[in-house]
UniProtKB/TrEMBL annotation, chain A:
It is a multi-pass membrane protein. GO terms for biological process: amino acid transport. This is Amino acid/amide ABC transporter membrane protein 1, HAAT family. Belongs to the binding-protein-dependent transport system permease family. LivHM subfamily. Keywords: Amino-acid transport, Cell membrane, Membrane, Transmembrane, Transmembrane helix, Transport. The lineage of its organism: Bacteria, Pseudomonadati, Pseudomonadota, Alphaproteobacteria, Rhodobacterales. GO terms for molecular function: transmembrane transporter activity. It is found in: Cell membrane. The chain crosses the membrane at residues 20-40, 46-71, 83-103, 109-133, 145-167, 194-213, 239-264, 276-304, 316-333. One of its GO terms (cellular component) is plasma membrane. Its main location: membrane.
UniProtKB/TrEMBL annotation, chain B:
The keyword Transport applies. Belongs to the ABC transporter superfamily. The keyword ATP-binding applies. Residues 6-235 form the ABC transporter domain. Keywords: Amino-acid transport, ATP-binding, Nucleotide-binding, Transport. This is Amino acid/amide ABC transporter ATP-binding protein 2, HAAT family. It holds the Pfam family ABC_tran. One of its GO terms (molecular function) is ATP hydrolysis activity. One of its GO terms (biological process) is L-amino acid transport.
Length: 343, 240
């Protein structure tokens, strides 16, 4: 501890490596992309794969962002998060299909309007569902991890069965809106338009979340609450209410991720959210529980690994992300950007 | 308006299966500094945490400013006007010093005049205003923790060991800041192990042992009676 309160330490004695330490996670993404370039060798394949990887990473981030905050804020493990992904996809896709004449028209404006309405409907429904989920399923099991795991898994199964009841047991195939089909050619590489859109949307969500978390009082409360909820309450804030808000927002974002993923795959199933959760949990863990930035970087890395390895060594694709998680946890056991927990 | 801001009557509280507070009776007068003293582990921090609502009082009544707050949520107690400086300081290390202060001004903005007063009391907070609070030294964190409680006027300040682990130079900064708060007419319940600080600031004193208040009276009375100190706390001013 310093006795010299007015003295400002200088960075002079800090090594270059140590100074880069905070930025290290941010450098992982460009490093992976560069590594991919040398491993793949072909410029056009590399470009196509990279865009596809970033699109996938962004969608996983959108799904994971709420989950990491929910965990960080109230120490709640929600295995049911995938339910919001599935519900979002079904509501969103159904809405767009119902607006078939808009979605089918060769007009970008009408197409985006249809998709926008689909996204709005999906986020509304998953937001309300999240609110009910928090009330009925999560609230009775605050502070009890095992119960949380069991009951949220139960909630997931119930929601999946409700989807089957409403939409039937079969997977639903469909096509993207007219102007979002196909690809543009850039530097000899085919870049799917939809993937570019997904990257833009994911980036927008990340920037918006960061702005809210850094520039607004509610964001400050959330960040402070992730570190020390008790103190936030002692200052006069009702953390429980903030948590419900974060849970609803996180559920709605998962719904958005579901719509995006549905249109990416052009097929939806009741179990699609559950299938995504393995990757989502990997992202939350390697990012550092409670860290939105960490989840963002983690999601991009997972997307890159998945796509590069699938191209280079298809057999290894399945284990690539587990390997990534292991490597990162060996480097930083708390994840890349751990949130300091005061307890 | 009663001249007591806070009363605890027969307050009992548990941590896990342990019966920690075993019937605390305490009255904190308005507009004065009340010292909460006692050996390590007798329940001083637990008492403050129970007043704040972090722990539920299993038995007894906590009255604040004429209201029964025993069943109120922590946030409601804070909004009634209790400022809390916890033993572990409760700094949000991922937030800047400024953001810590902004959050502490619950009812709105941190007034410039207030901020300047805090800078005057704790100059390092001005220096590190935009730094992450996690990078502050222990003493600077303690300053920030107290400054947060001072971000708005509170009816009562609960302050847990503000001089813990601090060098003498910083202790006198703390004492000066607390004295200024006191001179402004604040009501303070202060836990302190440093008897010189307790004697310098305290008007009243309550001594705890084994989860109960075993003595209460004027601070000067306790300060002047080495035998009483020895008996209550196993310490005396001799050699201090
Ligand atoms: N989490 C806990 N689990 C079990 N016992 C606890 C816990 N926290 C505190 N205690 C016990 O409660 C008793 C009172 O602790 P408390 O922190 O209130 O003491 P204190 O008077 O503030 O001590 P100090 O002067 O050392 O800060 C102690 O005997 C302590 O061991
Ligand atoms: Mg203590």
């Amino acid at each position: 501890m310093s006795d010299a309160p007015d003295h400002r330490p200088t960075m002079a004695a800090v090594s270059f490596g140590a100074r880069l330490d905070w930025a290290a996670p941010w450098l992982m993404v460009p490093a992976l992309i560069l590594l991919g370039f040398f491993a793949i060798g072909s410029m056009s394949s590399w470009l196509t794969l990279t865009v596809s990887a970033l699109a996938m990473g962004m969608m996983i981030f959108v799904m994971a962002s709420g989950l990491t905050l929910v965990f960080g804020l109230m120490d709640v493990i929600n295995f049911g998060h995938g339910a919001f992904v599935s519900v979002g996809a079904f509501v969103g896709v159904s809405t767009v299909l119902a607006l078939g004449h808009w979605a089918g028209a060769p007009s970008l404006v009408l197409n985006l309007l249809a998709v926008g309405l689909g996204v709005l409907a999906a986020m509304l429904v998953t937001g309300v569902l999240g609110w009910i989920f928090e009330r009925v399923i999560i609230r009775p099991v605050y502070g009890a991890h095992l119960k949380q795991i069991l009951i949220t898994m139960g909630g997931l199964i119930v929601v999946e069965q409700v989807i089957v009841m409403i939409w039937g047991p079969d997977e639903i195939f469909f096509a993207r809106p007219e102007t979002l089909k196909g690809a543009i050619t850039f530097a000899g590489a085919a870049l799917e338009k939809y993937r570019l859109l997904a990257v833009a949307v994911g980036l927008a969500v990340f920037v918006a979340m960061r702005l809210v978390l850094r520039r607004t009082r509610i964001g400050l409360i959330v960040r402070a609450g992730v570190e020390n909820g008790e103190m936030v309450e002692a200052l006069g804030y009702r953390l429980g209410m903030v948590f419900v808000g974060v849970f609803i927002a996180g559920s709605a974002l998962a719904g958005l991720g579901g719509v995006m993923w549905g249109f990416y795959q052009e097929v939806i199933t009741a179990g699609m959210g559950e299938d995504m959760m393995v990757l989502v949990f990997i992202v939350v863990i390697i990012g550092g529980l409670g860290s939105v930035e960490g989840a963002f970087i983690g999601a991009l890395m997972v997307g890159l690994m998945q796509n590069y390895i699938a191209f280079l060594e298809p057999k290894a694709a399945l284990i690539s992300n587990i390997a990534l998680m292991t490597a990162i946890l060996m480097w930083r056991p708390q994840g890349m950007m751990p949130v300091v927990k005061a307890k | 308006m009663s001249d007591t801001i806070l009363t605890l009557t027969g307050v009992q509280a548990d941590i896990a299966q342990y019966h920690i507070l075993q019937g605390v009776d305490l009255a904190v007068p308005r507009g004065a500094v009340t010292m909460l003293l006692g050996r390590n582990g007798v329940g001083k921090t637990t008492t403050l945490r129970t007043i704040m609502g972090h722990l539920v009082a299993r038995q007894g009544v906590i009255g604040f400013d004429g209201m029964d707050i025993t069943a109120r949520a922590t946030s409601a107690r804070a909004r009634l006007g209790i400022g809390y400086v916890p033993e572990n300081m409760g700094i949000f290390s991922d937030l800047t010093v400024e953001e810590n202060m902004v959050l502490a001004a619950v009812s709105g903005r941190l007034l410039a005049e207030r901020r300047d007063r805090i800078f005057a009391a704790f100059p390092p907070l001005r220096t590190f205003w935009t730094s992450d609070a996690g990078t502050l030294s222990g003493g600077q964190k303690q300053m920030l923790s107290i400054a947060r409680a001072m971000a708005e006027d509170r009816k009562l300040y609960l302050i847990d060991e503000p001089t813990k682990g601090l060098a003498p130079a910083i202790i006198s900064t703390m004492v000066a800041a607390l004295r200024e708060l006191k001179d402004g007419g604040a009501s303070i319940l202060l836990v302190e192990q440093n008897f010189a600080v307790a004697r310098a600031l305290g008007d009243h004193a309550a001594v705890m042992d084994d989860g109960r208040i075993v003595w209460s009276g004027e601070m000067s009375e306790l300060a002047d009676d080495a035998g009483l100190q020895e008996r209550l706390m196993g310490l005396s001013m001799e050699g201090k």
